[in-house]
Amino acid sequence: MSRISVIIPVYNAEKTLRRCLDSIMSSAFGDYEIIIINDGSTDNSAAILSEYASKDQRIRIINQPNSGPSAARNKGLELAEGEIIAFVDSDDYVRGDYLDQLTKAFCEQGADVVFFEFHRVAPDGVEESVQHLPEFKAGYYQNLINLSEADMFGYTWIKAFRREIAHKVNFDADVNLFEDELFTCKLMEKPLNLYFLNEAIYYYVRAAGTLTQRTHEDYCQLCNRVFLAWKGVLTSVHDSSNFLVRKANHMATICKYYGLERKVKKFHFFHEMADTDFIKYVTVSDPLIEGIRTRKWHKVVRLYLKYNIKIAAAKLLLGRAEK
Asked: Percent of the chain at pLDDT above 70?
């Protein structure tokens, strides 16, 4: 049995795949397997994978019809044999001692889950910043809250797991947004032994054109699933209301702008926002959100029109300034 299983979902990653694999395979630590789920790629990814697999028997390739990242990760979990399981995205890469650092953390700290720091990298390869872990507290659930508020909780690739822990939970294959946070919430409902590795051993490459990614008509419902997942995690925590209020305020704000700026069926979208669980916790002072929460639709229409007039005026002024 390998010490570490690294699971990599791949979909049309020909431009970044070599960098990703080379970074893992450059490690002096050799007791690992790489499980690659080729999720119906239509570019040259399959050929690159075959090339690497022919040179190293530690690389296992599974080809499947395009089913999304959750199904791909579930397949990887099903096949993983390592004592430690880590996820790497195919457009990212890792530091040369990534495997060594993880092995050391699990062996010396007796952890069930190890969180680590990461570099943010622009699409052109320029390193932008290092994302540091929050301070490690004594209380388990306070650690989860701190991780969430530091934006260090949900990402699948930001942590590694003992195999027996990771195999208890699957990704929801019907969800293709926030699926990693839902997975982590399910995994962490009952206290586990966490360890914070204060080393930036992962390089997260920010995708280009994120503003043009697929629009989700059910964005509010997906946010609500995350909110309910957090309520489930914090059921036994008597002082969790402040965090849930902050979470609700954040979700209401991002849903507001999502509805205003994306090509969704506006008022159907806002009606669904009014039906969420998180809207009941909102305290933020915002006229549009308050109109949605209290279902004062005439007010919502007026504020929506006012917002669009402002945007149109700003674009007109910008256009004149550029001439």
From this structure: 94
CA–CA dist 63, 31 (Å, integer): 24
Q: What is the distance between the alpha carbons of residues 124 and 121, in angstroms, rounded to a whole number?
A: 8
Question: Where do the domains of the chain lie?
Answer: 4-209, 215-322
d(CA 292, CA 253): 12
Q: Does residue 312 carry a pLDDT above 70?
A: yes
Q: Tokens 């080393």 label which residue?
A: 199
Kind and range of the H or E run holding 69: helix 69-79
Sign of CA dihedral 288, 252, 246, 116: negative
Average pLDDT, the chain: 91
* Mean pLDDT of all residues in 49-53: 95
Q: What pLDDT digit, counting tens, does each position of 121-137 carry?
A: 998 889 999 999 998 88
The pLDDT score that the predictor gives to residue 322 is 62
In the chain, the amino acid numbered 164 is: E
What pairs with residue 205 in β-bridges? 121
Q: Which CATH architecture has domain 4-209?
A: Alpha-Beta Complex (3.90)
pLDDT for the residue numbered 211: 39
For residue 314, the 8-state DSSP code is H
Beta carbons of 49 and 139 less than 8 angstroms apart: no
Interior angle at CA 122, CA 218 and CA 87, nearest 5: 65
pLDDT tens figures, 79-113: 999 999 999 999 999 999 999 999 999 999 999 99
**Helices of type H across 172-296:** 179-187, 219-233, 241-261, 266-274, 287-293
The token pair at 134 is 């929050």
How many helices (H) and strands (E) would you count in the chain? 12, 9
In single-letter form, the type of residue at position 188 comes to: M
267 has a pLDDT exceeding 80: yes
Judge contact between 246 and 198, C-beta under 8 A: no
Q: Which of 152, 229, 221, 250 is nearest to 186 (CA)?
A: 229
**Closest by CA position to 278, among listed 246, 315, 239:** 246
- Facing residues of 38 across strands? 10, 63
